[in-house]
Amino acid sequence: MVSNLLDNPKLFRHLVEDLPMGIYIVDPERRIRFWNHGADHITGHLSYEVVGLVLDDVVQACDRHGNRLAGEQRPVTTTISEREPQQCTAFYLHKGGHRVAVKIRTRPILEYGDTIGGASVLFEEAFLDHQSSVPPMYGCLDPVIGIPSRRLTRAVMHESMAGMEESHTGFGLLRIRVLGMEEFRLKHGPQSVVPFLRATAHTLRGSLDEEKFLGCWGENEFLAVLPSASPVTVATTAETLFNLLSQSEVLWWGDHFLVESEIACTVATPGSDLESLLREMKPLHSSATTTAKAAGATGNSARLRG
Questions:
Q1: Considering 102, 125, 148, which residue would you say is the last residue of a domain?
Q2: Quick one: which of 145, 153, 183, 174 has its CA closest to 262?
Q3: Do residues 226 and 263 touch, judged by C-beta distance below 8 A?
Q4: Best exposed site among 56, 96, 150, 276 by fewest CB in 10 Å?
């Protein structure tokens, strides 16, 4: 009975902990007081690790431009100060190093005398159905990275090219390359690059909706297909992904390494040749020319090549 549930705090807490969404509660100083299993799953941080800590020390969030949301920029801070609910989409840094797109809703917690007691935050992954973008016939995934293999990506590409000729509608194409892998592999061994590739793939997949395809391409490369995309849409998506990758990181033997990448993009139109498109694509964004990722910028991170 519902009445029995409401009269049983332990049972009620168990129900909230097992809800299929992330929920956490902070006090007016933004210290975490409650953290459910859904928050464990989405962020990779477990309740016993985070309860009692300041939110900014645990949940590192940024917007689509890569700007960090901390302190006064957080929606939960606005909720506490203005006593008004907020909602937005942001990108949380998973404990594994990749970015996760999340939809966030906050609510103020008012105590007796209308004093502010903190805020509750509900969040869930923005693209829960992203795997639906991979048709069943392309169900074979790369065993290491967990996304479609190069062979299957090539099949999708040829299918997209053929469909374009029939529909007379172009599509966007992104080529993403992780930088510094050769040097890192030589220095630390073949398996050392796997966390970087996984973090990159997870950030990309978690930032693309279900209509967009992502698969492996070269040894350190990925291809993304954006159906019915204009040049502006393709360029905007490339910029967003680059910003999010630049805010992703990998922990390797106690050091935090920022993921470095370059992204090239183009729009395929009827009559295009796949090999020519790939050969002529030039990087639009590249960490190799970005100084904001220099080693020591935060005191805790190193360049991938460092």
A1: 125
A2: 174
A3: no
A4: 276
- DSSP class of residue 225 equals E
Q: Residue 299, SS3?
A: coil
pTM, 2 dp: 0.80
1-15 residue pLDDT tens: 444 555 667 776 777
Residue 297, φ and ψ in degrees, nearest 5? -60, -35
Do 137 and 269 belong together in one domain?
A: yes
User: What is the span of the domain harbouring residue 80?
Assistant: 2-125
- The two structure tokens encoding residue 288: 């190799």
In this predicted structure, the answer to whether residue 293 has a pLDDT above a threshold of 90 is no
Q: Are residues 143 and 287 in the same domain?
A: yes
By the 10 Å C-beta count (0-12 exposed, 13-18 middle, 19+ buried), 225 is classed as buried
Q: Give the strands of the sheet with 213-216, arranged side by side.
A: 213-216, 221-227, 171-178, 261-268, 283-286
Task: Name the residue among 256, 144, 155 with its Cα closest to residue 190.
Answer: 144
| pLDDT per position as a tens digit, 226-263 | 998 889 999 999 999 999 999 999 988 888 899 999 99
Which of 181-185, 227-231, 293-297 has the highest average model confidence (pLDDT)?
Answer: 181-185
Structure-token match 């016939």, residue found:
137
**CATH number, domain at 75?**
3.30.450.20
Of residues 44 and 126, more confidence is placed in 44
The answer, yes or no, to whether residue 131 has pLDDT greater than 50, is: no
- Sign of the torsion angle spanned by Cα atoms 60, 61, 62, 64: positive
140: CATH: 3.30.70.270
